[in-house]
Amino acid sequence: MAETPGTDSRADSPDPHSPPMPAAVDRWEGAGGTWRIEGLGPGVARVALCRCDGGEVAEWLTLRQPGELLWARAAAQEAARTSVAQDVPDADRNISGRST
Question: What pTM did the predictor assign?
Answer without folding.
Answer: 0.69
